[in-house]
Fold these 4 entries.
Entry 1:
Amino acid sequence: MDAVTEREAVRWVERELERGRGGRIVTPNVDICRAVAADPALRELVCSADLVVADGMPLVWAARLLGTPLPERVTGADLIWSLSRLAARRGHPVYLLGGPPGVAARAADTLTSRHPGLRVCGVHAPPYGFDQTPAGIELVRQKVVAARPRLVFVGLGFPKQDRLIADLRGQLPHTWFLGCGAAIAFAAGTLPRAPEWMRGAGLEWAFRLGREPGRLARRYLVDDLPFAARLLTGCLAVRLRFASGRSGVP
């Protein structure tokens, strides 16, 4: 994880855009970390990103337990707003990719109303399963490349969005990409976000589970919660071993 605040991440992107350099941002949460732990190729996909910021509070807690604290949680749902503010101020065209039909266009309207001067150069909601065929992937790729954006928000879920971004980086070397999951739906208002107090308490997952139990119950309760518990206890054990070693306790 890069130990940066949201503001510092935006400044980083701003400096790189001014220098004509692109990049990609990955925002891991517990679910992404669980997938990465089981698949070396996914780990490389995440670790090779230009910015890796902690989207999940358990990752912030884990870093604190290790004695390598992160300054704050930095989410894709927040970055879509702050990077849009940057794009409006600097005149960088943005592209929204993902979500159900019509959601990206609605998110574009909301972002432009909040940030006057923001130029959205394209939106696209690929059909389900587009990534199962070379033709489907190529059509999406052509649409993004033809729009020539400087910032692209990709909300297709991990790892689909991140694999597509990695492919697009070669064709748009001066563009920054944010893999942002549900952030496009949040921006559009079609998917409500948890209250701020729940986000700060690390309970955003509980809010989303309550809204979509059928889709998220297994992911959150069966897969992610045990992984988060192992992660935190493992980090605590490492910290205690390090502390005992420094104090000379056998």
Note: The first strand starts at residue 23 and ends at 26.
Entry 2:
Amino acid sequence: MTEPGGIRASDAEREAVVERLKIASVEGRLTLGELTERTEAAYTAVTRAELDVITSDIPRSGEAPAPVPGPRPQGAGRRWFVGVLGDSKRRGKWRVDRQLGAVAVMGDVVLDLREAEVRTGEVDIVATAVMGDVKIIVPDGVEVDLQGMAIMGGKRVEVDPAPLGMNVPVIRVHAYAVMGDVKVIGHSRAEPLKRAWAAWRQQWHEVRRDLGMPLPPQPYPVQPPGPYGHAQPHPQAPYGGPAQPQGLHGQDPHGRGHWHGHGYQRPAGPYDDDRGR
């Protein structure tokens, strides 16, 4: 007899889990990065056990009181980030409960949405760059709708798309660039985030491992902390790739060099003497 957790999931059950995740995101339970990651996991789930793990820390409808909507901010409703002859950056955990606007005039504006709580179902951004740059960082796997115009400038999207047929979050960007750039990049092309290992992901991997299924690559690789509480970088390890083994004092066992403080010292060449010149 097939165990209850080993029963295969249907398309309708996967879509139901995705809708449940979207509701949890609007309620502020999931960030945009978590929503994207769990949505992809839901669509790739084969059994009901995997779907149960994905939503194990999210209450079902009716189990928790519905949130009381707070007062809408006064004004037109769009939240602006402006950098004029300077920089304006928004990173980390923050709430997106209305439309966004970014203006860079001979300066830079950075909006990092990976850890943002998106309360609107989708994100609408107006980005204007005049001899400046507007950079929007999103999780890979979201749908990006970039429109607008560029005069002696550029607008581009560098985000790994989700497989066809997935109902993923949408980022709509209206770009206007004059001798400047507006770009939307995925997290694989940005500075990696330091994230803890989520309990649901560990359980989900255990379920797939028991069923003999392959594990997908992690969009947010978790690095073990170093002796001072910071992740240990490695000069030869690409982002998202396996960490390379290190020898004594951090020296690469293949003789390619080692770390000293915050810099990387190259190995001695054929014309270097024992004094390191």
Note: Residues 11-26 form the longest helix (16 residues).
Entry 3:
Amino acid sequence: MRLAVLALSLLAWNAHAQSSLPAGWQCTGVCGWMAAQGDIGASPEAQVGYGFLSTAGSTVYGSSPLQLDPNSRGSGTETNGSRLLSPSFSLVAGETFRAHFNYASTDGKGFDDYAWARLVRADTGALVQWLFTARSSNSGTRNIVPGDVLPRDAFDPRTVLVNYDDYEFNTRDAAQPIDWTPLGFSNGSCWRSNAAGCGFTGWLTAEVQAPSSQSYRLEIGIVNWGDEAYDSALAFDLAGLAPTVPEPRSAALLGLGLGLLRLTARKRQT
């Protein structure tokens, strides 16, 4: 009971710290805008905050456009997640589109949560360019991005992420747990006390050139894998992203209660 009270208190605070994304953004699951907090500091855009998506509190299933092979990921399957679609925007041929991503996770080996971002056509939703992928793992933190989510010929982070060569995963452990409130009840925890893949990537910047003059959308998503415990979340930012009027986050409050049950169940199974 005491854990439940503490968890509900955390999300009650979170309800005041988070806001809705600008008008036109379409969220399925748990998404929002927030001021920089904890381990996830301000993005390279140097704005006062950023957008985020989280598995914590989401009751949405089948949100990913990808069909990953379960045999290489602990025989698990995709479970709950969130998906976000931006309003349409116009680019001329050759114009640079830039966005920033920071993946955080408390999960790991055998329960390989993952995130993605891609540029799509506004009229058809067809893929134009993958921008980012990340997957929770403990088999070498360097590969958390791109995480074998896509074949290298579909997404090569060396050609899309301008600071990929300098990328190092920021591992957190029991002595220094991760601190980022969109992780919900999982915040401050890790599926294993010394799991190297628990932590966050730091901000990675994607840059691509529009192949033609037309309207595009940014699609972003994140999913739990194998179970619904030990959540993951993705921060993102791009020029002009700003909050609207704060709104209650009752769905997140409900999700936190569910998270307590899922976490307890998984510990018992372990």
Note: DSSP finds three helices and 15 strands in the chain.
Entry 4:
Amino acid sequence: MTRTVRRTSFRLTPPGADLRGDYWTSDAPVEDAALVVCHGFKGFKDWGFFPWLCEQLAGRTGVAVISFNFDGSGVREVDFDDLDAFSHNTFSRELWDLEAILDGLAAGRLGDLEVAPASRFGLLGHSRGGATCLLKAGLRSQVRALVTWASISSVVRYEGFVERWEAGETVIIPNARTKQDMPLERNVLDDVRANRDRLDVLASAASLTIPVTVVHGTADESVPFNEARLIADAVGDLGRLVGVEGATHTFQAGHPFAGPTPELEAAVEASVDLFARVFG
């Protein structure tokens, strides 16, 4: 069953953050449940496949779907128009942002937007967003199901930048699509060093008692497929590893979005299957 879906924008401003998002609802909604979609590094809620993904999830499961830009995404109104926020983003900051979204859903309000209160959550995260979802699921009992797409298995990923940060330099990350030089300060390194136990992705995965579907392309050029195996092994019997044969990090999709690919449709099928079983 595919439902008619409506998209409504919201703006949530918890202390120290500015979260812009969309609330996707269907004409036959499932009560007391919501799915939250989290983008990854150099991603944002309107990148490529994300709007299509949200519409698919809401239309095919009936569960309300929320997508949003992390405060440190660097995106407010248009592509990467707040590079200062991007440069100071951390994993802990993303966990706080996601907590604010879940708190708003539980209270029935996202900024000025009144929404149906939810006490059961599903999370879906792509790449770095997958790690954020794995960490949050281990901290919040209302999370009942989790899907990762091309997720990293560890937050310790910046070894090549350490010497430059220690020397007081700002690391520059080129954005091939926008042609921007995106600065990255050492905040992320300091956060990882100060919070190693709390930011242990595989330990959080091992603690989960909810169903988890780990979706990953076998030809992922950014996050090796073995990281999916590590996550699935950590989750154990409640985990399902879905290897999408030949799929890249973004499942052959790009920005602007040119329509779904077979690889992307396979990822959506695996996600809908889990969420429909848990919340249907």
Note: The radius of gyration is 18 Å.
